[in-house]
Specification:
The protein is built from nine helices and five strands, in the order αααββαββαααααβ. A hairpin with a 5-residue loop joins β3 and β4. α4 packs across α6.
Amino acid sequence: MGGPTLEKLAQINPDRAFDIYKERFADASGFTFVFVGNIDTLTIRPLLEKYLGSLPGTNSNAQFKDLGIVPVKGRIEKTVYKGREEKATVNLVFSGEYDYTTKRMLELEALKEVLQIRILERLREAESGVYTPQVIVSGSKYPRSVYQCQITFGCAPENVENLVASTLDEIQQLKTNEPTQTLVQKWKAEFFRTIETQRQTNYYWLAKITSHIQNDVVFEPVDAYKDLVENISTEAIKDAANFYLSEKNYIKLVLFSE
């Protein structure tokens, strides 16, 4: 994704941008600071008192504003002709509202991995038509609880429609028939291996703690995640496919060369 155009940059008012910066940092009473790592609480306390305790606070109790920036609803298909590379780029996007919970997010992650494997096998290995198809999922709780599932791949321009049809067919099969137990167990094993490696890093704990605070979710121990993952069944993934991959909100974007 490219940066803003010169026309967009010209619309920026530096003075107003600086005013916004001063407004946001004039009141630290609502800030939450997260520190991770090998911390000596006795050593760090005077530093916190000195550097954080001295920050200004007006207790303004600022709240976020919902600007209504959410995935577009309905069915949309758009073709763009840009660039010179003789290939096409396809993006299929499914989105909607949902109940943001840890369980829901894990189900969405499981669906992503199962769908990734099946599409990879179908489009690249069986039909030899695409360059590394990718499934990307995301979810948020604030300002609204919405999810998005994106399938993207590059291919020869003449193969676009056939490969889109194959992708949708693979999704429909997943909605109709549960994935194999072997495939689900493969995801679970990889999930646990990844978590075991990541939890040894400060970045993992920083991201985990920050996410729980921002989304107002109860902080759960790693063992709780293990139980939730173990309880995700093949039927649960089939149900997730029907929920998250509904074509009620479906966007098809195709980029061709000029």
